[in-house]
TrEMBL record:
InterPro entries: FAD-dep_OxRdtase, FAD/NAD-bd_sf. The keyword Oxidoreductase applies. PANTHER family: FAD DEPENDENT OXIDOREDUCTASE DOMAIN-CONTAINING PROTEIN, SARCOSINE DEHYDROGENASE-RELATED. It comes from the Bacteria. This is FAD-dependent oxidoreductase. Pfam families: DAO. One of its GO terms (molecular function) is oxidoreductase activity. Keywords: Oxidoreductase. Residues 39-392 form the FAD dependent oxidoreductase domain. GO terms for cellular component: cytoplasm.
Length: 437
């Protein structure tokens, strides 16, 4: 096996990913120095923080955003690039909290989330290889039955994009693999270059007057009517604070940290494929994702590489060789790629919540401290929705969406800092065993 990877010398620079190698702009922002005052301080320079900053700046508030590394450094700049409808998993479970109307509203917000991304890209003219077309892949007949229910529900919600159910004989239309028994095409979802989107949104935020600071890790927060956020070389005084760190909260707030579990996800990128190879693999250039617990997700890049990801790890330990770990999974789907080289391999942490619904709200003890985290694999769209809802709430605008999310309770993972990952890993192993029983 060949794997050509350029190691990241600086731990604060972007992961050695295909995205970093093909970033279409190089941005640099200073570290915070001295005292700064703002209406809102945001901690975290990923999609959540950047989009909250844009929403607030558009509403006339002054904003300072602090990032410990570089803009888009975490999951926002290294994820699978799949832009898929929906937020959460099985939101009907929350009917006892938000009511049936609230459940319907959550589903509609999951559709609106993709539209927010679409409009942001269009409004700020962000080049990020946005491509429409997505297919859910059925691993077994019960998955296909669930897709039929999803299709009916989406139509009942007034979903305006084309949907089509595929059976086994039709799957060659979307994927060059015999692994699946059916699928659901959704032309309102798709894929993009996530780091280029994040960098474009950073530039957009700055153009609106947001003060952006990189290499400015937060060392301490003083809570109160005025929040004071400290870094190694400065501090920000603000009326409101937004914690948008997700899986990289790193103990900054123990209450929020216990409710989100960092889980590793990994991606490999092949060498560029020929047009014939690309058409054989994914004839309609869609993003694709299967339904297993340890799911596979994949798509083609703009230069016809196969980007293949998955293998969510709850153990807290990354594979020593990501390419060696992921390549056999790719070959299970596409065995004819056995001679294709792997040019990039990388991973990162996504934030998982116990109930798989994004956590968007404010702290009970500090009502001027807001947060958004735990997107559980739906981060590209859900982060943009979170930014919209936080912007509305902080600006004092009525936000039914914010209130809905804030109503849902989120449990703290058991086992504390050191045991919660192994305990969840055991639980996920049980679910994987059930898939083959």
């Amino acid at each position: 096996m060949n794997a050509s990877v350029q190691p990241s010398v600086n731990p604060h620079s972007h992961a050695p990913s295909y995205y970093a190698a093909t970033a279409n702009r190089q941005l640099s922002y200073p570290a915070l120095a001295g005292d700064v005052q703002a209406d809102v301080c945001i901690v975290g320079g990923g999609f959540s923080g950047l989009n909250t900053a844009i929403e607030l700046a558009e509403r006339g508030l002054s904003v300072v955003l602090l990032e410990a590394n570089q803009m888009g450094w975490g999951a926002s700049g290294r994820n699978g690039g799949q832009l898929i409808r929906g937020v959460g998993h099985d939101v009907e479970r929350f009917a006892n909290v938000v009511g049936s109307d609230g459940v319907r509203e959550l589903k509609l917000l999951g559709l609106e989330a993709v539209e927010i991304v679409r409009r942001r890209i269009e409004h700020f003219n962000i080049p990020c290889d946005l491509t429409w077309g997505y297919c859910d892949l059925a691993n077994k007949p019960s998955d296909l039955e669930g897709f039929a229910e999803d299709l009916a529900e989406l139509r009942s919600l007034g979903y305006r994009h084309d949907l089509r159910l595929l059976h086994a004989d039709d799957m060659h239309q979307v994927v060059g693999s015999s692994r699946y028994v059916g699928g659901l095409i959704d032309m309102g979802s798709g894929h993009l270059h996530p780091l280029n989107l994040a960098l474009g949104e950073a530039a957009a935020a700055q153009s609106l007057g947001v003060q952006l600071f990189e290499h400015s890790a937060v060392t301490r927060i003083d809570y109160g009517t005025e929040v004071v956020v400290h870094t190694a070389s400065g501090k920000v005084r603000a009326k409101n604070l937004v914690l948008a760190c997700n899986a990289y909260l790193n103990g900054l707030n123990s209450n929020l940290g216990g409710k989100v579990l960092p889980a590793g996800s990994y991606i490999i990128a092949t060498e560029p494929l020929s047009q014939a190879q690309a058409r054989t693999l994914i004839p309609q250039n869609m993003a694709l994702c299967d339904q297993r617990v340890a799911l596979d997700y994949y798509r083609l890049s703009a230069d016809r590489r196969l980007l293949f990801g998955g293998a969510c790890h709850y153990s807290g330990r990354d594979p020593k060789d990501i390419a060696a770990y992921m390549r056999p999974k790719m070959l299970e789907v596409f065995p004819h790629l056995d001679k294709v080289k792997i040019d990039f391999q990388w991973g990162g942490m996504i934030g998982i919540g116990a109930n798989r619904l994004p956590q968007i709200g404010r702290l009970k003890d500090h009502r001027n401290v807001f947060y958004a985290q735990a997107y559980s694999g739906h981060g590209v769209n859900a982060t943009h929705l979170a930014g919209r809802l936080l912007g509305e709430a902080i600006a004092g605008q009525e936000s039914r969406g914010f209130d809905l999310f804030a109503q849902v309770p989120h449990v703290t993972f058991p086992g504390g800092k050191y045991l919660r990952s192994p305990l969840l890993a055991l639980g996920m192993l049980w679910h994987r065993l059930k898939e083959v029983m």
